[in-house]
Each structure stands twice: as C-alpha cells, then as structure tokens.
TrEMBL record:
Protein name (Swiss-Prot/TrEMBL): 3-oxoacyl-[acyl-carrier protein] reductase
CDD domains, sorted: BKR_like_SDR_like
Family indicated by similarity: Belongs to the short-chain dehydrogenases/reductases (SDR) family.
Residue ranges the record marks as coiled coil: none
Organism: Sediminibacillus halophilus
Keyword Oxidoreductase: yes
Length: 263
C-alpha cells in the first residue's frame, strides 16, 4: 500500500520519546518531512539523530515547544511550514496528567490538565488548519488514551480531559470535511512506554506488591496477553494521517490488544 507520504510535511508534538517518537519514526520511514517537538532540547537532538540514522531520511528537524504555551505552538507551526511552505499532517500529542483521585487535585491541577491535554490540541489545530484549507487537504490525528472509551482507575484527570478531544474531533470532522481535512482520535491501551512503567510503579507502591506482579496481572487483562509495542501503535496513527486514508474521519480508534471491552 502506498501511503503517499513522500515529501509531505508532518508535525508531531511531544515526540522526543514514547509514542510521539515512535510515530515520528514511522513518518520518516515513509519519506515525510518531519518536525518533532518537546520541552527538552537535549532529548530532541538525540531523537532527531536517531531517526535520521535509522531511516536515512535527513528531512527531520526539531523545535522546542511547551504545549501549554501558545507562543511556542505558533512558532512550532511557523517553523514547520517554513520547510515546504505548508503543513500536510498534524499529530497532536501531550504527556499524560498525573494519577490520583478527585480530592487529590486543586483548581490549579485541573487547569494544568486542561491546558496540557485539551487546550493545547485546540491551539495547535487552530494554527495548522489555515494551511490545510488553502491546499484543500490535510490530516489531523489526536493521540489520547483508552479513557476515551472506558474510564481508568485513579486517573480522573485523564478520564475528564481525554473525552473532550473526541468531542472536538467529531465536531471538527464535520466543519473541515468540505476542505478534505480528515481528523481522528487514537487511544493507546497499555503500550510499553515510560508512562506505563511510571503508572505500574505507583500501583505497586499503593498495593504493596512487586512491580513484576503488577505487570503480570495487567497483562492478563489484555486479550493478546502482552503490552503493545510503540511501533504497533504508531503504524495505526500514520495510516490515518496518510493519503491512503480517504474516508475515515471523526472516528475514535483504540490500539489496545483487545483490553477495553466497551463497544
């Protein structure tokens, strides 16, 4: 299948590591011009070099961007557009909010989660849409969480903010369809990243059990009986963001190995 990504410009946010990095890597393999971002320049530099080395694609660049800072977001999009004059693809990603229960969080905590996990997506989409409208084509994929389908224990901030991304995408899929701009949301289940390790450690501490025991019990809940690999998740994102996707928009997809039982 030809994904029609050669020479396309893709912006992948929060991509110096984890799922964002895996997604950027897949775009580079397909010959896209890729701009990655995060707040950590040292990690960004290392990731750019790693992607270039693995893919033999030298059209990979980075920009420092705090996704809660609207000026940073505007600058990121401007730098991406400067590469080829437009932006074809946006993959919205951001680090997950902290774990905890309702009474653990202050107004400030709620505001930070809103700005990082919902408002940042809104701001970035707002910056790229004019480029896509001008060329009458574009793909937007929002990376969320499996909490868009089923709530997760001890993750009330995620359970609240992530479904907002789905509502945003569903509404925009209707508004942007006349301009051939497709927008979808992809929720990872338990993919083997630093985020999962962090959450498993907290679970182990709270239950007073070993990290290995937590992992074994979690794997049993997944129909495929294992954690997903970052590249397995990334390939789904890249397909939805590609020219091969011509008729899927406004949808929410879980890449979870069958973990979530909700319809």
């Amino acid at each position: 299948m030809d994904l029609q990504l050669t020479g396309k410009t893709a912006v992948v946010t929060a991509s110096s590591k984890g799922l964002g990095k895996a997604t950027a890597l897949q775009f580079a393999y397909e010959g896209a011009n890729v701009l990655i971002s995060s707040r950590n320049e040292k990690e960004l530099q290392a990731t750019v070099e790693e992607i270039k080395e693995q893919t033999n694609n030298d059209k990979v660049a980075y920009v420092i961007c705090d996704m809660t800072n609207p000026t940073d977001i505007q600058n990121m999009v401007e730098q991406a557009a400067a590469q080829t004059g437009t932006i074809d693809i946006l993959v919205n990603n951001a680090g997950g909010p902290p774990s905890g229960k309702f009474l653990d969080f202050s107004d400030e905590d709620w505001q930070q989660a809103f700005e990082l996990n919902l408002l940042s997506f809104i701001r970035t989409i707002r910056e790229v849409v004019p480029f896509m409208k001008k060329q009458q084509s574009g793909r937007i994929v929002n990376i969320a969480s499996s909490s868009i389908k089923a709530s997760l224990d001890n993750l009330i901030l995620s359970n609240t903010m992530r479904p907002g991304i789905v509502g945003l995408a569903k509404s925009l899929s209707q508004e942007l369809a006349p301009d051939n701009i497709l927008i979808n949301t992809v929720g990872p289940g338990r993919i083997e990243t630093g985020r999962i390790v962090e959450l498993n450690k907290k679970t182990a501490e709270s239950k007073g059990v070993s990290l290995e025991q937590v992992k074994e019990e979690a794997d049993k809940e997944i129909h495929l009986s294992r954690l997903g690999e970052p590249d397995e998740f990334a390939k789904a994102v890249v397909f939805l963001a590609s020219g091969a996707n011509t008729y899927i928009t406004g949808q929410s997809l879980l890449v979870d190995g069958g973990l979530v039982k909700a319809l």
